[in-house]
Amino acid sequence: MERCELEPGWYCDLHPAGGFLTPHLDEGLIVEYSHDRPQKGVVMSDFLADLQSYFASEEMAREVELADASPAFEPAEYADRLDRLRRAMSEAGMDVILLSRPESMCWLHGYTARWYRHGGPPEWPALTTSVVRADRDEVIHFDFGGEEELLSATSVCSDIRIYPGEAVDGALAFLVRELTSAGWLQGLVGRERRGLPPDQRTGEAIEEAIAAAGCKIDDATALIDHLLHLKSPAEVERIEAAGRVLDIGLRAAVEVIAPGVTELEVWGEMMLAMAKAGGQPAALHELVASGPVFLPHAISGRRALRRDEIVYLDPCGVVDRYHANAARAVWIGDPPEALVELYHRASGGFRIFCAEARPGRQVEDVGKAMKAWHEDSGISEIPSWCGGYDLGLAFPPDWVGPWMFDFDEAAPGKVFEAGMVTNLECLFGTLLVDTIIYAEDGTRVLSTVPRELLVATP
Q1: pTM higher than 0.85
Q2: Most CB atoms closer than 10 Å: which of 24, 140, 341, 377?
Q3: What is the CATH number of the domain that holds 340?
Q4: Are residues 335 and 251 in the same domain?
């Protein structure tokens, strides 16, 4: 037993564990600590030398891995996004913008993480922030220690500034000091007030610090939202790739639906199929629900599927955080003919929508056409809802974007534009949802899975 320097009088014993600890030992070792036991086993200096060798080899491998890593898009794509943002800021009279939402930072320079601190303890404030000034062709990103390698792997931003500590007051003082010394903290400063992170308390602290530095502050959320609302061709390509992943997941789910299988088992097979196709976790739980009580915003559970009932699927395919959504219903066994006909008629709404919702058309005018079709469809007496929302770049906890349309509500001034991507939900006693891509040459539905009542034959 070798004396350790963790505590006076304590010793360290290592014995085989059936796995590995270092690349130089045939068998692994378990470390046990005890007090004043006789020396036996591996000498501690040898153990530490092996660990140092292991960590050195890991460091070399990590450097190779990071050198090969790259953001999701080419540098020219991010440069164009920065240029678009700066032009929008100038038009709005905004001198500086602080970006704090994961979607905004990812869109601007690629940064992609799974934790942004917005639900954590106050001792770990949500202050990850990217800063842009309208008259500077660069981005300054502020973050906490430990994220440097993740930034290197996912972001094109070259000016990374690490907070000196975790305390919110000290971190904000550092941010203000750095921006002031760079000549950036002047004029009107915009901040994303809607969405997460940061939480309300941290957001108020940010605004107080900016105001104390002599700047005016305003909400820049709508400005950023509009930039993310209109996708570049490269972004549309990612959503199309996500659509292919989505279809694989839907088809895999239909294949495993059978009596006795649980909702969670179907969900697991659907997720596995999309993962094998290169899909990534979505920003929202991807629903598998079953039975006569349909709760569209529930979470898949342990309920076992039964013959002669319906199963609802509502997943997203995800590629580089870009989402494509579709929802279908699956009948187990021989479906009722009336239900088959209902789904067939409801699916006609997608054809009418794509013909009417061309770029430049007013949302209200498209709504009138959809309502006229609904009246003539033979299903107008069934309670219904038809509308949709922005789809694209998203992080947990939500894939629902900020722009929406609802044909039951007035929408003065709202227009469909080329570059938009939304979903369309035709809910006429049915679950039919699909991703819609709007382009100058027309509007189209993304999924190739039939927009009908699908059937699983036990």
Answers
A1: yes
A2: 140
A3: 3.90.230.10
A4: yes
